[in-house]
Amino acid sequence: MRHFLRKTFLILTSFTIFATLISLIFSNVYAEQSTSWLEQELDGNEPFINAVERRLNKSREEVTLQDLESMTALDVENASSFPEKITDFKNLTTLTVQMGTITEVPDNLAELKKITTLNLYKNNLTEFPMVVFQLPVLDSLQLGSNAIKEIPPELTSMSSHLSSLGLQNNQLISIPAEFFTMDWASGYWPPLGLRPLIVDLGGNQITSDIPADYLDNYNNGGNMLEHYSYKQGQDQLVYNGEPITVPFNTDFKQLSPDESKLGLASNKALFDAHEFEYYDDGSSTLENGVATKEGPGFITIKSTLSTKSNPFAKVRVPIVVEAPPKGADITVEYKSTTGETIAPIDTLEGLLDANYTSTPKTITGYTLTETPANANGTFLKEPQTVTYIYSKDPVPAEPVTVNYVDDKGKELAPSETFTGFIDDPYVSLEKTIDGYSLVSTPTNASGKLTANAQTVNYIYQKILIPAEPVTVNYISDTGEKLADQTLLKGNIGDPFSTSPETITGYKLKTTPTNAKGTFSDKTQTIEYVYEKKKNLLKKGSTLSVKRNNSTSAPTEISAANKPKLPKTGDTKPLDSTLAGLFLLASTIILWRKNSH
Fold it and tell me: Any idea which of 53-62, 418-427, 479-488, 570-579 has the lowest mean pLDDT?
């Protein structure tokens, strides 16, 4: 039994679920079948669907595409958007979409080229619908009761066909000035001399200048328009704060008003787009907007877009100028070019931001050479120093002589002399002298000219560079070496001097031209040439050579060791020959004496 009940329960449950699914399927099919073509075409946009039904006097199920295309006017209310297929209404000349929450106008509205009247009254538009520039025959554009903040100047491009513009109750604070200087598509309106654009501007907060002839007594109330004087009154800018307290010398032209303290006489909130400025109308204690007098006064706050004469867009505000504070003292100094104070210091006192003027002093023996950039200025919170610089009047000084000498005081280069006036600076420089190096730089190489003469000595020492040797030879006129050569050594630039040697049996024949000179980096040879004397040396005697050169002591050279004096073809000893000749001569003399 229990098994039977369970089975029965499962069957009933399954049947119930199946029946429910069947019901849902058929209800969806029916719903799809009940949606009209118009509802699908207009995306289910009920405000537009209802407007079509009213205009055609047909139910939505009866409306066709041909019906939409044939319509020339459509009035829609309470819409929040445009249907995608708004282009189906291609023959519309009048389109009204009002009392809704529309925030933007689709670009494809530009395909409705026959529209002459577009009414978007009382929606949520915050920007001007730029698509209207593509409607070539638009005559009337109504945008009242939205939240549009700005009208583009490009609207003048529609002047050939646009005659009426409704802008009442938006958030406008200005209208492009170009609107009032050209012809529009409206009828002639004396005494303007041109066809004006019929504009409804009431309920905005317009402060920009609009010509008086453009204003009428119907549609411009509630703004702040200078030239409006008709039935609908203008609003008035008011100030709701305490007197404005400012420091002395405040320049209101550099300040911006606190807009939170501003309002309108109508108690309407000021639009965010407003900008205001301070303006000195000359009737208060200010001087060109600057608070130069202590105590109470007034300043005017006006719209930056309004004229100075517009009474509605400005308000006079009380101010209080604080007592001027004292500025920091200014110290005036008088100094020489060396920084020495040469006259008593002066002190200037005054009010903060007040002007000050300083003057130089006449100081005996000094001449003013530099006037400071801050000789004149204003007192500040911080102390200031004004310094006048003077140069001492010139007094001729004794000269400074600069010498360049060696350690023995010998002048190595021309001296130099500095002249000028007492306290003039001088700076001497060492010189580069070939063959010498600086040993001592004087302590007074630089200094000042004084009333006493001064001497600066640069001391140098010779740079010693070993030279190539000088060789001195002593030879006969036949080229025979008569004595040992002498080798002289020294440093480049040192002088040397040689002299002939005394050689027994010989006398000097030729003195060399380079017997004296200076050592150099090249070897030098000096040759003394001798010729033989007529007297003869005795056998066994010695040949004496006396050295006269300062760098070599006299040297004796033995005759036995010395080479024989040359004689052509003679190979016998000289002494034997001479002795024979002597004996022969003696015999001849004795024979002659005896014969007489």
Answer: 570-579
Residues 107-136: pLDDT tens digits? 999 999 999 999 999 999 999 999 999 999
- The predicted pLDDT at position 555 comes to 38
DSSP 397-447: ---EEEEEEETT--EEEEEEEE--BTT-EEE------TTEEEEE--TTSEE
CATH number for the domain that contains residue 429:
3.10.20.320
Residue 409 CB partners (closer than 8 Å, separation 6+): none
- Span 252-256, average pLDDT: 95
- What's the rounded Cα separation, in Å, for the pair 189 and 212? 13
With H, G, I as helix, E, B as strand and everything else as coil, classify residue 593. helix
The helix or strand, by DSSP H or E, that contains position 475, with its residue range, turns out to be: strand 470-476
Other residues' Cβ atoms within 10 Å of the Cβ of residue 16: 10
Structure tokens at 465: 């560079």
Identify the H or E element spanning 56. helix 46-56
Which tokens is 168 given? 């009442």
Largest CA distance in the chain: 219
262's CB contacts (< 8 A; 6+ apart) are 237, 238, 239, 240, 270, 276, 301, 315
CB atoms within 10 A of CB 572: 8
Task: Say whether both 286 and 139 belong to one domain.
Answer: no
Flag whether pLDDT at 580 surpasses 80.
no
* Angle value at C-alpha 482, between 479 and 483, nearest 5 degrees: 130
**Strands 117-119 and 73-77, bridge-based pairing:** unpaired
Does the residue 2 lie in any domain? no
Looking at the fold, whether 208 and 63 belong to one and the same domain comes out as yes
Q: What is the DSSP string of 69-97?
A: HH--EEEEES-SS--GGGGG-TT-SEEEE
Residue with tokens 């001087």: 287
Backbone angles phi, psi at 130, to 5 degrees: -65, -15
Q: Using CA atoms, how far apart are residues 277 and 279, in angstroms rounded to an integer?
A: 6
State the CB neighbour count (10 A cutoff) for residue 197.
21
β-strand 94-98 against 73-77: which pairing, if any? Answer: parallel
% of the chain beyond a pLDDT of 70: 83
Task: Render pLDDT for 582-594 as a digit per residue (tens, 0 to 9).
Answer: 555 554 555 454 4
User: Do 47 and 71 reside in the same domain of the chain?
Assistant: yes
Residue at 221 is within a domain: no
Identify the domain containing residue 568 by its residue range. 470-574
Sign of CA dihedral 75, 76, 81, 83: negative
Nearest in space to 124 (alpha carbons), one of 95, 141, 107, 149: 149
Phi then psi for 212, rounded to 5 degrees? Answer: -60, -35
For residue 550, with 0-12 CB atoms within 10 Å meaning exposed, 13-18 middle and 19 or more buried, which class applies? exposed
State mean pLDDT over 374-392: 94
**3-state SS class at 2:** helix
Query: Does 3 fall in a domain?
Result: no
- Which 3-state string (H, E, C) describes 435-453? CEEEEECCCCCEEECCCCC
Among 493, 490, 496, residue whose Cα is nearest residue 512: 496
Q: Across the strands, what pairs with 483?
A: 474
Two tokens, residue 476: 């006969």
pTM value is 0.55
